[in-house]
C-alpha cells in the first residue's frame, strides 16, 4: 500500500498524465488510477475533485459540461498547454527522485 | 425498501452545509456517485450495497470541503482579476437597473437623501450641543460656582449662576486645591464710542486677569498674562476690532464707555469665540476697572465665579468645605438683609450654600437662573437623537419595502444568474452592492441638501453651529459612511429574499409577484405609521404647550408694550419725557420700573410690625411708577394702587396674593411692615394684586412686593401703544421725542412680548425643530407609501381588470386596495397612543403650568395620518379602480 503523503504528492502528475492520454471526467479518472495502481493507491474518491478544481484554477486543465448522446451530462476535463508543460516539469522532478533513489539502492547492493 | 434517489438527496445535503461547494460541484459529485453505483450494480452488487460502497469510497465530506475551501482561498488572493471583472458586471447591472426603473429609484433616493440629510442636521446639532466648552484644555478641572438658597415663604429653592464678588479670592486663599479662580460679569447695555462713532452695545463683559489662564480662548494680539491686569483695559473680538477700528491696529487705542470721559485702552484682540462656547463675548474689559467688585464687600455683588481645581481635587469634598464660607462670610450679608443673625436665620428654616457645576455641564445641565446664555436641555438632546434615528429608520424601511416589493421584477435575473452558476453569496453581494450604490447616490444628494440648507437650518435653531460641512471635512466622510451603512442595512433583507429565489420556480413564473414577505412589509409599514403618529402627537402637544405658555394669561399684559432700555439717559428729563409721550395719541400709558417680568428682580427683606417673633421675609421687589398697574395690566384684588393723591405712598407697599399668603394675612390691607431699606419706617400695605408670573412658566409664582419710586431712572421705561397699525410711525415719533431729552443716549428698545419669548427659547427652538423634522419624517414615510401602493396597484392591475369585468364596482375596488392599509393604520394607532402618552407625560413634567392633553390630539394625529396616507394612495388606487379593464387585459 502506498502511503498517504506519497499518494497526495503524486496525484497531480498522475491526473495530468491520464488527461494527456485523452479527455476524461471525474469518475473515469479515478477508475483509471485505481486500475493502474492495481488498487495499491488508495484514494477516497471525493478527494480527487478538489485536486481537479485546483488544477483548473491554476489553468493546467479546463472543464466543459457535455452531453454527447449519453444518459447524463458529464464534466469533461482537458489538459491545456500549460498543463502539458507542468506535466513535463513534474516528470523531470520525479525522474530525478527516481535516479537518486536508484543510485542509492544500486550502490547499496554493489557493496554487499 | 431502499430508496436510491432519496438516499442520494440526503447524501448531497451533507455538502450543502459547506460554503465551498457551488451548484456545479454538487452536480459533479452527484454524477460521480451515480456512475460508481451503476458500475457496481453492473458487477452484480445490490443497489443498497452499491450505494454504501460508493459513499464509503467517496470518503469524508468535511475533508473534501476543506480542500475545496483552500481552492477558494487561493482563488481569492491569486485570481483577484476575476473578482474585479465580476464586480464590474455587478456595477453595470446595478446602474442599468437604476436607469431602467428610474421612477422607483427616484422615490428611493429622494426618501433616503432627505432622511440622511435630516439625520445629518440633527446629528450636527446634537453634537454641537453636547460638545460645549470642551475645547478648553483644562475643562475637566474648571467649575462654575452656583449659589443656592431656600428661604421661608418661597416654595422653590433659588438656584443662581452668580455668587458674591469676594468668593473667588476667598476660595483661592482658603483652599489649596483651588489653583485659580476667575470672575466674570456682564454689564447692562453700554454706549461704546470711538471719537464720534457711538454704538449702544448690549453688554460689555468684565473678567479677572486669570481669564486667559483658565480658558483657552485665543488672544491674537496682546499679552495673555497681563492683558486684563490694569484698570480700564478692554479687549475686542476680531470682528469688533474691525467694527470699531477697521483695518488699523487697535492696540493702544482707546474707546469711551458710556461717558465721554471714561476711556478704556485696547490691550488685546481675541479670536471670535467658538460657537460651542457658553461664553460669547465681543467686548471684554478688566474686572479691576470696577472698584465696587474689588473690595471685600459680599453684599449685593453678583458675579459669575469660575474656579480651576487641582486635577486631584475632589469637587464634592470642596463643596462640603465651602459651607464654612456661608457661615463665616455670607452670614454677614444675611444679617444685613434680614436683621437677624445667621444662626437665627438658619433656625427659622432658611438655608444658603454653594455648589460646583462642571464647565462642560453648564450648557445642557444647568438648573441655575442668570446664566450668560440661554441654556439647552439634555432631555431635548435625547428627543432629537430619537427623531433623527426614527427618520433614518423610516427611510431605511422605505427602501426595504420598495426593494422587496420590487424584487419580483428582478426574479428572472436571479433565476438566470443562478442557472449559469452564481452562488447565493454572489447574488447577495450583488444586491448589497446595488443598494449601497443607491445609498451612495442618496448620500451625495444628502450632502448637497445639507450644504444648501445649512443657512436655513441655522435660522431654524436660532444660532450657528461649531460643526459644519465647511469647518470639518470629517463630516463629509461621516455622511458618506452613514449612507453606506444605511445602504447595507437597507439592502440586507432584500438581498437575502432575492437570492433565495429558486431558479426553477422563477423561470417557470411561479414567484407570486410582490406577495413575498408580506408580513415583513406590513410590519415595517406599521412601524412607520406608529412612529409618524407618535411624532404628530408629540409635535401637537409641544406646539400647544408652547402656545399655551406664550399666550396664557400670566397675570400681566405684554402686548403692544414698547420697552426703552437705559432711561437713565433722560436723567432729570424723565418726567417731561413721560408727559410728552402721554400727549402722543398713539400712546396709551407710560410707566417706568426698575424691572419687568422676565428680567432680574432685586430682593427686599420685610418684617411685620405686629409680629412678636420679628420673623423676616425676603421677597422679590420692584420699584415702580404710578402708572405701573395700568400699563402692565395687573389685576387689583383689594385696596388701591399707588396714587399721586397720596404723598405718603412713597412709604407704602403693594403686594401680590402669594406674598399676602406668606405673611399669613387674611386681610392684609392696612397692616404695616418695616424694612431696613426704608430705615424701619412703617410701610402700610395698601393694595393686593393678583398673582402673576415674573419668570417663565417653568417656575411657580413667587411672592413679590411693589414700592413706589417714580423718579428712578434705572431699569426700563415702558410705553403701551394703542394701535398696531402704524407702529413704525409711532416708533419714529417716540424716537424723536427721546432724542429731544436723552442727551445723546441712543434709542434702545425692544417689544416686551418678543423679549419675553426668549424665556422659552429652548422650547420654541425645540418646537420649531420638531415641527420641521416631524413633517419631514411623515413626508418620507408617505414617499415610501406612494411607491408601495403604486407598485402593488401595477402588480394587481390584471386582478383589478378581471374583477371589473366580473362586475366589481369602483367602490369595492377602492375598499379592496385600501383595506389593508386601513388595517395597518388601526394597528399603528393602538401601538402608538400608549407610547405617545408616556412620552408626553415625561416631557410635560418640565413645566409647572402645563396643558391638559385632550383626546382630540390623539384622534387628530390618526386622522392626520389617514388624510395624508389617503391622499398619497388615492391617486393610484382611483386610477386602478376607474381604469378601463381592457387596457390591462388585452396584453395577453
Present the secondary structure layout.
The complex is a heterodimer of chains A (112) and B (892).
Chain A: H1 4-20, E1 24-25, H2 26-36, H3 48-57, E2 61-66, E3 74-79, H4 81-111
Antiparallel strand pairs in A: 1-3, 2-3
Helix pairs in contact in A: 1-4
Chain B: H1 4-16, H2 23-42, H3 47-58, H4 61-78, H5 80-100, H6 102-130, E1 142-150, E2 158-160, E3 163-164, H7 167-174, E4 178-186, E5 190-194, E6 197-201, E7 205-207, H8 211-214, E8 219-221, E9 233-237, H9 238-245, E10 254-257, E11 263-270, E12 283-286, E13 302-309, H10 315-321, H11 323-338, H12 342-347, E14 351-358, H13 362-365, H14 378-419, H15 424-461, H16 473-499, H17 503-508, H18 518-551, E15 561-565, H19 574-582, E16 587-593, E17 602-608, E18 616-624, H20 628-632, E19 636-639, E20 653-656, H21 657-663, E21 672-674, E22 683-689, E23 704-708, E24 716-721, H22 727-741, E25 749-751, H23 752-757, H24 761-795, H25 797-805, H26 810-844, H27 855-882, H28 885-889
Parallel strand pairs in B: 7-12, 9-11, 18-23, 20-22
Antiparallel strand pairs in B: 1-2, 1-13, 1-14, 3-13, 4-7, 4-13, 5-6, 5-10, 8-11, 9-12, 10-11, 15-24, 15-25, 16-24, 17-18, 17-21, 19-22, 20-23, 21-22
Amino acid at each position: 500500500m502506498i502511503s498517504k503523503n506519497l499518494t497526495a504528492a503524486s496525484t497531480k502528475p498522475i491526473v495530468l498524465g491520464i488527461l494527456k492520454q485523452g479527455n476524461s471526467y471525474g469518475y473515469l479518472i479515478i477508475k483509471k488510477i485505481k486500475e493502474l495502481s492495481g488498487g495499491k493507491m488508495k484514494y477516497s474518491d471525493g478527494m480527487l475533485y478538489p485536486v481537479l478544481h485546483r488544477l483548473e484554477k491554476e489553468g493546467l486543465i479546463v472543464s466543459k459540461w457535455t452531453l454527447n448522446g449519453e444518459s447524463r451530462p458529464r464534466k469533461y476535463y482537458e489538459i491545456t498547454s500549460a498543463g502539458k508543460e507542468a506535466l513535463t516539469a513534474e516528470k523531470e522532478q520525479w525522474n530525478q527522485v527516481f535516479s537518486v533513489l536508484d543510485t542509492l539502492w544500486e550502490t547499496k547492493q554493489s557493496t554487499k | 425498501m431502499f430508496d436510491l434517489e432519496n438516499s442520494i438527496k440526503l447524501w448531497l445535503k451533507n455538502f450543502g452545509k459547506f460554503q465551498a461547494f457551488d451548484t456545479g460541484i454538487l452536480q459533479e459529485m452527484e454524477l460521480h456517485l451515480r456512475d460508481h453505483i451503476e458500475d457496481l450494480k453492473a458487477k452484480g452488487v445490490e443497489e443498497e450495497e452499491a450505494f454504501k460502497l460508493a459513499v464509503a469510497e467517496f470518503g469524508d465530506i468535511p475533508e473534501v470541503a476543506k480542500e475545496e475551501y483552500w481552492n477558494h482561498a487561493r482563488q481569492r488572493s491569486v485570481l483577484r482579476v476575476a473578482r474585479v471583472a465580476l464586480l464590474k458586471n455587478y456595477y453595470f447591472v446595478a446602474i442599468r437597473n437604476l436607469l431602467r426603473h428610474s421612477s422607483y429609484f427616484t422615490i428611493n433616493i429622494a426618501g433616503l437623501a432627505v432622511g440622511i440629510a435630516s439625520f445629518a442636521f440633527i446629528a450636527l446639532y446634537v453634537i454641537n450641543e453636547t460638545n460645549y466648552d470642551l475645547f478648553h484644555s483644562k475643562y475637566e478641572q474648571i467649575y462654575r460656582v452656583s449659589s443656592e438658597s431656600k428661604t421661608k415663604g418661597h416654595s422653590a429653592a433659588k438656584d443662581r449662576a452668580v455668587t458674591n464678588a469676594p468668593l473667588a479670592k476667598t476660595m483661592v486663599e482658603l483652599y489649596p486645591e483651588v489653583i485659580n479662580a476667575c470672575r466674570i460679569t456682564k454689564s447692562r447695555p453700554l454706549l461704546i464710542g470711538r471719537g464720534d462713532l457711538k454704538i449702544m452695545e448690549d453688554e460689555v463683559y468684565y473678567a479677572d486677569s486669570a481669564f486667559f489662564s483658565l480658558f483657552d480662548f485665543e488672544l491674537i494680539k496682546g499679552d495673555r498674562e497681563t492683558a486684563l491686569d490694569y484698570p480700564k483695559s478692554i479687549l475686542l473680538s476680531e470682528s469688533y476690532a474691525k467694527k470699531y477700528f477697521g483695518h488699523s491696529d487697535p492696540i493702544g487705542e482707546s474707546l469711551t464707555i458710556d461717558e465721554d470721559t471714561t476711556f478704556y485702552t485696547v490691550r488685546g484682540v481675541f479670536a471670535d469665540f467658538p460657537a460651542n462656547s457658553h461664553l460669547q463675548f465681543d467686548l471684554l474689559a478688566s474686572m479691576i476697572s470696577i472698584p465696587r467688585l474689588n473690595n471685600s464687600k459680599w453684599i449685593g455683588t453678583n458675579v459669575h465665579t469660575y474656579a480651576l481645581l487641582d486635577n486631584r481635587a475632589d469637587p464634592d469634598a470642596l463643596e462640603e468645605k465651602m459651607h464654612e464660607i456661608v457661615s463665616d462670610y455670607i452670614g454677614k450679608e444675611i444679617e444685613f438683609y434680614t436683621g437677624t443673625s445667621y444662626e437665627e436665620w438658619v433656625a427659622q428654616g432658611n438655608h444658603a450654600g454653594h455648589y460646583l457645576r462642571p464647565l462642560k455641564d453648564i450648557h445642557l445641565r444647568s438648573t441655575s437662573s442668570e446664566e450668560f446664555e440661554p441654556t439647552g436641555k439634555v432631555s431635548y438632546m435625547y428627543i432629537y437623537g430619537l427623531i433623527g434615528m426614527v427618520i433614518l429608520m423610516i427611510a431605511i424601511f422605505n427602501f426595504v419595502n420598495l426593494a422587496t416589493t420590487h424584487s419580483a421584477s428582478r426574479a428572472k435575473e436571479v433565476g438566470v444568474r443562478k442557472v449559469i452558476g452564481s452562488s447565493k453569496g454572489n447574488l447577495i453581494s450583488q444586491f448589497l452592492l446595488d443598494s449601497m450604490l443607491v445609498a451612495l447616490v442618496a448620500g451625495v444628494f444628502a450632502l448637497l441638501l445639507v450644504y444648501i440648507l445649512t443657512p436655513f437650518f441655522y435660522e431654524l435653531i436660532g444660532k450657528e453651529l461649531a460643526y459644519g460641512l465647511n469647518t470639518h471635512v470629517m463630516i463629509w466622510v461621516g455622511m458618506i459612511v452613514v449612507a453606506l451603512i444605511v445602504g447595507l442595512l437597507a439592502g440586507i433583507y432584500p438581498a437575502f429574499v432575492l437570492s433565495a429565489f429558486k431558479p426553477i420556480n422563477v423561470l417557470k413564473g411561479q414567484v407570486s409577484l410582490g406577495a413575498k414577505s408580506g408580513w415583513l412589509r406590513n410590519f415595517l409599514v406599521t412601524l412607520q405609521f406608529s412612529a409618524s403618529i407618535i411624532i404628530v402627537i408629540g409635535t401637537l402637544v409641544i406646539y400647544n404647550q408652547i402656545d399655551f405658555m406664550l399666550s396664557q394669561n400670566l397675570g400681566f399684559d405684554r402686548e403692544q408694550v414698547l420697552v426703552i432700555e437705559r432711561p437713565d439717559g433722560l436723567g432729570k428729563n424723565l418726567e417731561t419725557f413721560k408727559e410728552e409721550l402721554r400727549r402722543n395719541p398713539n400712546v396709551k400709558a407710560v410707566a417706568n420700573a426698575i424691572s419687568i417680568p422676565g428680567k432680574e428682580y432685586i430682593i427686599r427683606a420685610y418684617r411685620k410690625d405686629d409680629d412678636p417673633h420679628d420673623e423676616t421675609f425676603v421677597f422679590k421687589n420692584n420699584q415702580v411708577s404710578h402708572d405701573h398697574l395700568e400699563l402692565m395690566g395687573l389685576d387689583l384684588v383689594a385696596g388701591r394702587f399707588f396714587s399721586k393723591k397720596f404723598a405718603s405712598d412713597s412709604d407704602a407697599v403693594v403686594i401680590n396674593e402669594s406674598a399676602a399668603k406668606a405673611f399669613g394675612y387674611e386681610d392684609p390691607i392696612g397692616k404695616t411692615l418695616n424694612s431696613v431699606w426704608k430705615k424701619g419706617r412703617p410701610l402700610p400695605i395698601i393694595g393686593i394684586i393678583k398673582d402673576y408670573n415674573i419668570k417663565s412658566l417653568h417656575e411657580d409664582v413667587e411672592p413679590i412686593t411693589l414700592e413706589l419710586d417714580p423718579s428712578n431712572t434705572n431699569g426700563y421705561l415702558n410705553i403701551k401703544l394703542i394701535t398696531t397699525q402704524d407702529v413704525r410711525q409711532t416708533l419714529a415719533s417716540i424716537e424723536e421725542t427721546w432724542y429731544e431729552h436723552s442727551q445723546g443716549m441712543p434709542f434702545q428698545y425692544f417689544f416686551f412680548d418678543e423679549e419675553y419669548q426668549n424665556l422659552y427659547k429652548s422650547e420654541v427652538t425645540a418646537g420649531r425643530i420638531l415641527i420641521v423634522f416631524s413633517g419631514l419624517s411623515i413626508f418620507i414615510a408617505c414617499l415610501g407609501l406612494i411607491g408601495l401602493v403604486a407598485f402593488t396597484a401595477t402588480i394587481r392591475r390584471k386582478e383589478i381588470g378581471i374583477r371589473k369585468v366580473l362586475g366589481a364596482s369602483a367602490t369595492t375596488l377602492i375598499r379592496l386596495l385600501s383595506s389593508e392599509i386601513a388595517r395597518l393604520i388601526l394597528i399603528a394607532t393602538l401601538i402608538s397612543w400608549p407610547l405617545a402618552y408616556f412620552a408626553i407625560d415625561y416631557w410635560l413634567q418640565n413645566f409647572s403650568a402645563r396643558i391638559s392633553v385632550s383626546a382630540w390630539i390623539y384622534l387628530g394625529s390618526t386622522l392626520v395620518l389617514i388624510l395624508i396616507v389617503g391622499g398619497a394612495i388615492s391617486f393610484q388606487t382611483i386610477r386602478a379602480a376607474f381604469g378601463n379593464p381592457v387596457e390591462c387585459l388585452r396584453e395577453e
